Amino acid sequence: MLFSESVTNVIIEISKHCNRSCDYCPVAASDRASSAEVFRENLYESIIRDLAKINYSQSICLNLYNEPSADRALLLKRIQFCREVLPDARIYFSSNGDYLTEDYIHAMVQAGLSELYVTLHLAKSEPYSDASAISRFTEFSARLGKPVKIHTASPNHTIQGNLRLHGLPITVFSTNYMSYGSDRAGSVASITNSEFKRTSPCNRPYQDFTISYNGIVFPCCQMFADNPEHTSNYAIGNISEYESIFHAYASSAMAGWRRDLLRESPKMTPCESCTEGCYEVSQAEREQRDALYKEYVGPILDSRVINQSSRLRNRIRSLFSTKLV
């Protein structure tokens, strides 16, 4: 099965709420702080049971633009169910750390959490500084009763460290996202670098499967369910409309995104401004990707022709290849 051979990370945004509104995040343009909306329980359980049918043992992520730890009862219940049904899966999520305590982390471990990532943000609209970041590390360590061991310190860029609490690996970092963040598929215009045009391939639509709090499936985690442009133009559909998570992954719409991002070539909107996971492609990899494209999709068209014709761009995206899917 294509899904079991390709997907290594299933992302389910278990709730909408986020208590923060950072300038470098699309949540700043949305009211999530007052929301109590959660991902439908029956849908969540159905997805997890689907994954059990293939003995899924890869990663399950419980966040996108939400703060999962804000609702303790919900988070622990979702972790526990996932662990009971998928005993070998790696269950993790990213948090802003605001609600985390030593006893809460202990409860997460007992429920079955595998790993935790914590981003220590500064106060709203406070410019990044290494001194402020270190202060957040100090406060966080004191709250947990255990120091974070810093292993990376890049001036005015990022500070990163880790600790282990109740056996749980926790990665902690604070990053200058206004300078080094992603524009989240163009939804954070203040970060967009107008001079940058992506050519690097991207594996996210192959390896990730992303579902927002309202069931909307996106080709990757950079897209935001509260952004009308994203839901109108980039959504694959709602997971409830598909027979299973496997049918959604094998849909023609999802195949179109994988096709667009397979090769090293100029990318279409919204991927053209995305800096996530960019890298220098070796000649050997470039030839291998081009060969795969020619075998499963067809001749490689001149990117200048594609970019000049929106009709042709849409046609390329909507093409369906059963071999790719």
Describe the structure.
- It is globular, with a radius of gyration of 20 Å.
- With 325 residues, it is of the alpha/beta class.
- Helix 2 (41-52) runs parallel beside helix 3.
- It has helices spanning 2-6, 41-52, 72-85, 102-111, 130-144, 177-180, 204-207, 228-233, 245-249, 252-261, 283-296, 303-308, 310-318; strands at 9-12, 59-61, 90-95, 115-119, 149-154, 158-165, 168-175, 208-211, 216-218, 237-238.
- Strands 5-6-7-4-3-2-1-8-9-10 form a ten-stranded mixed β-sheet.
- 35% of the residues lie in helices and 15% in strands.
- The protein has 13 helices and ten strands.
Please name the defining characteristics of this protein.
single chain, 325 residues, alpha/beta, ten-stranded mixed sheet, 13 helices, 15% strand, disordered C terminus
Helix content: 25-40%
Individual helix count:
13
Strand count, sense and barrel status of the largest sheet are:
10 strands, mixed
User: Measured on Cα atoms, how large is the radius of gyration?
Assistant: 20 Å
Compressed to H and E, one letter per element, the order equals: HEHEHEHEHEEEHHEEHEHHHHH
Strand arrangement in the largest pleated sheet:
5-6-7-4-3-2-1-8-9-10
Runs in which pLDDT lies below 50 for 5 or more consecutive residues are 304-325
- The N- to C-terminal Cα distance equals 10 Å
Kindly estimate the percentage of residues that lie in beta strands according to DSSP: 15-25%
The general outline is globular
Whole-number mean pLDDT: 93
- Structural category is alpha/beta
Strand tally is: 10
